[in-house]
Amino acid sequence: MIPFLAPFAGDPDQVADQELAAAKLEPDRAWVVDTGDHFAGNAGIYSLDVTLPGTSGRPCRVIPMAGVTAVGVHPTHRRRGYLRQLMAAMHDDARQRGEAIAGLEASESIIYGRFGYGLAANLVEFSIDSRSSAFAVPSPSLDLALVDKDEAGKVLPDIFDRQRRTRAGEVSRNAGYWTLLLADAPHHRAGAAARFHAVCDDGYVLYRATAETNTFQGDRVTILVEELRGTTPEVEAALWRFVLDLDLVGQVRAMRRPVDEPVRWRLADPRQLRTVSIEDRLYVRILDPAAAFEARQYQGEGRLVLDVRPPAASEGEADAAPGRWVLEAGPEGASCRRAHPGEDADLSLGLPALGSLYMGGFPASLLAAGGRIEELRAGSLSVADALLTTRPAPRSGTNF
């Protein structure tokens, strides 16, 4: 992948990686820039589905999402409009397939706003010293088992699929994803130990020791928690307790956690859970506002008229998302339609801001404070906050 500074060199490890990655690919959803004598760019889509904001006591819905990936143009062919052509081709393909939204993870976050993508979900990495991790609110006991990678491949996908439907922003994983994840190739471990897979009926935690230490001299091991998932907060708390209580462990670092991490409120001393980093992860592009906003659920109730401006890289008449839209929604359902003449707008916003609102993680009032939304009718921001914001906060913990 030349645009990502990883040219093909034929090394055995690289060949093995590409063979595993190929199992995830969809050849009929891949594009290249063909200059006649060689390829100078590439892009692709994974056919994913994504969990949408839900309402209390009801299962979250999922809808198809075009998972845009591997987008890049060779450095020798920049500034020729190839990126714009690739993005337009992918959006057109998604529309033809009936996908109401597209999503991506941005290696360079400044690029995709001009194509209509808005930040919709963040991830957090936390660290905590296990010796300062006492719970004030006890967690339940779990019947956990350590399994090898073959057994993990049989049981983890079902647990994951049940768990990821409890939080907006989570995307599906195909068989190729699990094959690549569980391969745990030594050259991807960055000097750490092989991965453990601790599993119960309703959750699992994947973790590894990050470096060799001399425990006979009192050294403590650092544990890297790569994934911790439970179908309920109680199961996740118990999985946290399991890794925090491992013998010989000092620091525990947990990756890809939600911004509203519940375990903080279990701790006797919440300060001990330290934020290492916050990472922007899922970016959403609305392709069909009516289908997208009617599919998700709403914890609040209200009516909004949204004046949506086209992105800088406009796709003209092919793009039905810009325009004035009327959203009427509540816990029992929603309708979204084009505004009739005389229906004045409540809020004015660009297409990226609409994507940021969609998963419910960022309130409209926050985006307005950042200059991304203009309130045209007094009180509309409060209506938008109550209608569109969701809890738990969205998360997208799967790379694509």
Please give the radius of gyration in angstroms.
23 Å
Shape: globular
**Sheet with most strands: strand arrangement:** 1-2-3-4-11-5-10-9-8-7-6
Q: What is the name of the CATH class of the largest domain?
A: Alpha Beta
CATH-defined fold name of the largest domain: Aminopeptidase
CATH superfamily of the largest domain: Gcn5-related N-acetyltransferase (GNAT)
- Work out the number of β strands: 16
Domain count: the total is 3
Number of helices: 9
DSSP strand (E) fraction? Answer: 25-35%
How much helix, percentage-wise, in residues? 10-25%
Low-confidence stretches: none
Order of helices and strands: HEEEHEEEHHEEEHEEHEEEEHHEH
What's the N-to-C terminus distance? 15 Å
What is the second-level CATH architecture of the largest domain? 3-Layer(aba) Sandwich
**What would the average pLDDT be, to the nearest integer?**
95
**Which structural class do you get from the secondary structure elements?**
alpha+beta
Largest sheet: 11 strands, mixed
